[in-house]
Each structure stands twice: as structure tokens, then as C-alpha cells.
Design brief:
about 100 residues, alpha+beta, 4-stranded antiparallel sheet, 3-stranded antiparallel sheet
Length: about 100
């Protein structure tokens, strides 16, 4: 299970925390950018599309759909030469969008 927490009062921009029992990722992003994740289903990786939303460890975070039920977070220079990738359920992205609105 993936848990989502959004600290809207974080400084300088809101902090999104996505975590499971074995890993945790912190993504800094304005609420309006996080709300753009509602378009994740059109950001299909097999068509080389992604959404750049947020920053993690000083690198941009790229979001795309992988299959029918999963999204991928790619953290790194760009969505082709990333340094870390995590797969999460699309329902988790839907939860992030709801929190951002």
C-alpha cells in the first residue's frame, strides 16, 4: 500500500510525501503543478510522453503511465536519462490530485 501525505504549509512550496513500508520519496511542488497530474492517463510512456511535476533531491520528477493500472515516477535530469524510478498505482496519483485541489 502506498501512502500519500501533502504538507501544504512546507516552505518554500508544498511537500508531497509518497511512501510504503520500505521506501519514502519527498517531492516539492506547487499545488497547481500537482493538480496537473490529473492528465497522467494521457502521459503514456510507450508514446514517450510524461508530465514534469515537482523536484526530488534537486532533480525534476517526470510522471507517466506504465500499463493500465500503474504510474511511474522518474527522478533525474530528464525522462530518458533518469536516476531513479518508482512505480505506484494510478489510484495513488488520483489521491495526490484530490489533495492538491
Amino acid at each position: 500500500m502506498v501512502e500519500v501525505t501533502l504538507d501544504v504549509d512546507a516552505d518554500p512550496v508544498p511537500l508531497l510525501m509518497v511512501q510504503t513500508e520500505t521506501w519514502e520519496v519527498h517531492i516539492w511542488a506547487p499545488l497547481a503543478d500537482l493538480a496537473r497530474l490529473d492528465g497522467i492517463r494521457e502521459a503514456r510512456w510507450d508514446e514517450r510522453r510524461s508530465l514534469m511535476v515537482g523536484v526530488c533531491a534537486g532533480s525534476p520528477v517526470f510522471w507517466s503511465v506504465s500499463g493500465d493500472e500503474r504510474a511511474t515516477m522518474l527522478i533525474g535530469q530528464d525522462d530518458e536519462t533518469w536516476d531513479a524510478a518508482l512505480m505506484i498505482p494510478l489510484t495513488t496519483v488520483d489521491e495526490i490530485v484530490a489533495l492538491a485541489r
